[in-house]
């Protein structure tokens, strides 16, 4: 297998494992110490379904952005194989980091489904790390790579959470 393909596939497996397996397992493990009588799943069907919807929304958003990286950007989410072209379509019209938002929503949804305060904490920690990474590492690098179009994009589109009134303009 070609080296770039190995890096790409490893990235997908690593990220999926971290979000779908490792984080929930770690959250429930920590919960077992601090919340010894914690439930395995949320008991309320309505809350469980809400959590599943949040997980699905986050997962779909993350997958959509990965597909855009591959098809429109000719790259991957891995910094070693970044998109070669600037992407400002799809969910990127409303949010500069929809992949991170998707990961965050997936983790929050899992915290709801698994009734896990620790996983909610992991979600918040993930959000903080991603925020600082985007602000101090990714955005300066993207300014260098894509120049004025990216700088204009920074002025128009919020970093993580879409502004509902901006949707009307698109």
Could you explain how this protein is built, in words?
Helix content is 69%, strand content 0%. It is built from 6 helices and no strands. The protein is globular, with a radius of gyration of 17 Å. The model has no long low-confidence stretch (mean pLDDT 87).
Question: Tags for this entry?
Answer:
170 residues; mainly alpha; Four Helix Bundle (Hemerythrin (Met), subunit A); 6 helices; 69% helix; 0% strand
Secondary-structure blueprint:
Elements: H1 3-34, H2 45-71, H3 98-113, H4 117-146, H5 148-156, H6 164-167
State the helix count.
6
Q: Regions with pLDDT < 50 over 5+ consecutive residues? A: none
CATH class: Mainly Alpha
| Distance N to C terminus | 41 Å
Q: What value does the average pLDDT take?
A: 87
The total strand number stands at 0
Q: How helix-rich are the residues, as a percent range? A: 55-70%
Structural class: mainly alpha
Work out the strand percent: under 5%
CATH architecture: Up-down Bundle
Query: Would you list the SSEs in sequence order as H and E?
Result: HHHHHH
Radius of gyration: 17 Å
């Amino acid at each position: 297998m070609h080296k770039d393909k190995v890096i790409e596939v490893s990235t997908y497996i690593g990220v999926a494992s971290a979000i779908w397996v490792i984080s929930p397992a770690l959250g429930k493990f920590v919960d077992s110490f601090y919340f010894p009588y914690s439930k395995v799943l949320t008991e309320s069907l309505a809350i469980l379904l809400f959590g599943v919807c949040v997980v699905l929304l986050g997962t779909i958003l993350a997958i959509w952005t990965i597909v855009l990286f591959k098809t429109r950007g000719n790259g991957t989410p891995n910094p070693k194989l970044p998109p070669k072209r600037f992407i400002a379509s799809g969910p990127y019209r409303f949010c500069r980091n929809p992949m991170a938002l998707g990961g965050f929503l997936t983790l929050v949804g899992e915290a709801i489904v698994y009734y896990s305060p620790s996983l909610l904490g992991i979600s918040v920690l993930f959000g903080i790390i991603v925020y600082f990474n985007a602000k101090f590492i990714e955005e300066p690098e993207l300014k260098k790579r894509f120049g004025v179009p990216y700088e204009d994009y920074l002025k128009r589109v919020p970093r993580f959470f879409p502004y509902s009134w901006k949707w009307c303009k698109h």
